[in-house]
C-alpha cells in the first residue's frame, strides 16, 4: 500500500494592527499554527514598505513610518 502524507499550510492566528502613526514604532508579532508540530516557521515579507522588517525566526514585524508613508 502507499502512504500519502498531507502537509497542510500553516495558518496565521493573530490579527495585525492596521493603524500606525508617523515617526512611531509599529510592531506586530505574527502568530501562526501548523498542524504538524515538527514544522518550524521561517517568516519573510514579500512586499513591504521601505524600512519594514520582520524577524525571520519569530515573526516580529517592526516599522517606523515617515511622512512619505502616509496615505
Task: Put the structure in a nutshell.
This protein is an all-beta fold. The chain is built from no helices and 5 strands.
Distance linking N and C termini: 58 Å
Q: Count the DSSP helices.
A: 0
Identify the quaternary structure here.
Answer: single chain
Radius of gyration: 16 Å
Low-confidence stretches: none
Major sheet: size, sense and barrel closure?
Answer: 3 strands, antiparallel
Strand percentage, roughly?
15-25%
Let me know the average pLDDT. Answer: 91
Report on the structure:
The strands form two sheets. A three-stranded antiparallel sheet has the order 2-5-4, with no helix packed on it. It has a two-stranded antiparallel ribbon with strand order 1-3. The protein is an all-beta fold. The chain contains no helices and five strands.
Which key phrases capture this entry?
71 residues, mainly beta, 3-stranded antiparallel β-sheet, two-stranded antiparallel sheet
What does the secondary structure layout of this molecule look like, with pairings?
Elements: E1 11-12, E2 26-29, E3 32-33, E4 53-54, E5 60-63
Amino acid at each position: 500500500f502507499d502512504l500519502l502524507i498531507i502537509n497542510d499550510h500553516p495558518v496565521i492566528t493573530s490579527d495585525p494592527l492596521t493603524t500606525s502613526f508617523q515617526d512611531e514604532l509599529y510592531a506586530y508579532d505574527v502568530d501562526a499554527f501548523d498542524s504538524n508540530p515538527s514544522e518550524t516557521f521561517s517568516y519573510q515579507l514579500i512586499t513591504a514598505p521601505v524600512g519594514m522588517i520582520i524577524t525571520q525566526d519569530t515573526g516580529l514585524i517592526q516599522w517606523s513610518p515617515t511622512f512619505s508613508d502616509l496615505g
